[in-house]
Amino acid sequence: MALRLTEIFFSLQGEASRAGLPTVFVRLTGCPLRCVWCDTAYSFTGGEASDIPAVLAEVGKYPVRQVCVTGGEPLAQKDCLLLLTALCDAGYDVSLETSGALDIASVDPRVSRIMDLKAPDSGECARNRWENLDCLNARDEIKIIIASRADYEWTREQLRERRLDTLCPVLLSAAQGLLEPVQLAEWILADGLNVRFQMQLHKLLWGNIQGK
């Protein structure tokens, strides 16, 4: 059971419904996507070989039950599924941050899946695996990063045609440096979208410091 690990660190969850909760982050190495606005490109390569017992031991050093497995794209490593189950078996409240490009059907049902949909300006819209929508439940969340008005209009269309907000909570955030958050907030209000606007709490506190 081999994993390639970029880092394990302790911080506040910056996004989604768990925002603000002290959380242990397990960042796995590697990602098959190359989104234009990606802020974790350092996790694409390198990392260190590890295994599930070693990850559990490191996670156990921190005094919380919240664990987020992230990347990169963690599901690109086949043993990520085993890691998720092991964390759940150990009693942790586990969330998974995934791009939505890979199959989520086999993820342990105890895990909350925070699944991206890639809007056109990401450069990876064609990689959206729409079949994943059928796997989502109320404990999961859909996240969409918006970089332009065109991205917003695409998102609004997906919300209406695919009724995304009936599947699980939908989170919209502005791509850092590409769209002002206040602009996205105003668009959401103008259209009365049933979504949650979010900003990345960890970046508001610490900027773009790696491991935060």
Structural features, described:
The protein contains five helices and nine strands. The chain is of the alpha/beta class. It has a single domain (2-206), classed as Aldolase class I (TIM Barrel), CATH 3.20.20.70. The longest helix is centred in the last third of the chain and has 14 residues, at 149-162. The chain is globular and about 50 Å long.
Strand order of the largest sheet: 3-1-2-4-5-6-7-8-9
As residue ranges, the low-confidence spans are none
The CATH H-level homologous superfamily: Aldolase class I
The CATH architecture category equals Alpha-Beta Barrel
Average pLDDT figure: 95
Overall tally of domains? 1
Rg result: 16 Å
Query: Which fold name corresponds to the CATH topology?
Result: TIM Barrel
Which structural class should the secondary elements be placed in? Answer: alpha/beta
Distance between the termini: 27 Å
Shape: globular
Largest sheet, strands/sense/barrel: 9 strands, mixed
Secondary structure tally, helices: 5
Helical amount: 10-25%
SSE order, one letter for each helix or strand: EEEHEHEEEHEHEH
CATH level-1 class: Alpha Beta
The proportion of strand residues reads 15-25%
| DSSP summary, beta strand count | 9
At a glance:
The chain has helices at 52-59, 80-89, 149-162, 181-191, 201-206; strands at 2-12, 22-28, 48-51, 66-70, 93-98, 112-117, 141-146, 170-174, 196-197.
